[in-house]
Amino acid sequence: MKRSFFRLFGISLLHKTKTRKFYKALVLYYTMKKLFIFLTLGILLTSFTLSAPLTGSASANAGMNNQATTTQNTEKQEIENARKDSQIEVQEKNKLKIRDNECQEGCTCTSSSIKCQLQNGKEMTITAGKSGNTIIQVKGEEMKTQVQLYKEENKLYGQFKNNKTKEIKIMPDQIKEKIQERLRLKNCSCEMELDKEGDYQIQTKKEAKFLGFIPIKKKFNIEIDATTGETKQVKSSWWGFLAKDIDEEIIVGVSCGTVTPGQNDACCQTKGYNVWDSEKSECLFE
């Protein structure tokens, strides 16, 4: 009996001890859980509090940047507009216009013509032609055009297609000389027109023999770049292959391709060009 009593008492005491430990552990668990929740809420509230001013600051900075960009764009646009207005004023001032009260500096004007000196020392005469054409004459050779012409610092410019402004470097007298060299003509009777693409369109004729014995005049259409002086194409009559050209004897040295080797550029420069192009066999502007 004694043994049974002590055994039961021991079991009861052990059970109470385990129960107390369990409750302590349970209380500790809930305490930690509450503490974790409070810490989490505190961190979240702090982050929201800090993020609000930062977001406002970022928005303010973005607004300031946008305003600065807008101001810069406006200033650039104003500068660009001022530049365009200045260009328009310069172009208007430098226009070569016949029957106008104003005369270009360095030019002599009458009611029917304008005479101007070019940078190469040549004198250019401008007169009014038919159908709205303007006639330009240099050293007795002339060409016609409907392109608006400008003169600045003794250089001639034209306003071509899409409002592109290009310098017109090659003059009618040089065109004639270039065609005579290419077609081996002593004297070229050339009709020249400067088109709105910036090219000279030239028509001329050359003596030939059809089928080798019938004398005829063979037509040629030639296109030359007004800025570079490059001969872009040469076309003849479709039946041209049936006619043999009669080449006229050209004076040696007239073409810069026949001068002493190494002197080609110097030869071209005496004619107002810059360089000799050996591939195209002609003088060109740079």
How would you describe this structure to a colleague?
The protein has 286 residues and is of the alpha+beta class. It has three helices and 15 strands. Strands 1, 2, 3, 4, 5, 9, 10, 11, 12 and 13 form a ten-stranded mixed beta sheet that branches. A hairpin with a 2-residue loop joins strand 6 (148-152) and strand 7. The longest helix is centred in the first third of the chain and has 93 residues, at 2-94. The protein is elongated.
Helix content: 25-40%
The largest sheet is: 10 strands, mixed
Low-confidence stretches: 82-90
- Kindly, what is the distance between the CA atoms of the first and last residues, rounded to a whole number of angstroms? 131 Å
Number of strands: 15
Average pLDDT metric:
78
Radius of gyration: 46 Å
Strand content: 25-35%
Order of helices and strands: HEEEEEEEEHEEEEEHEE
Enumerate how many helices there are, as a single number.
Answer: 3
Q: What is the SS-derived class?
A: alpha+beta
- Categorize the overall geometry: elongated
Oligomer: single chain
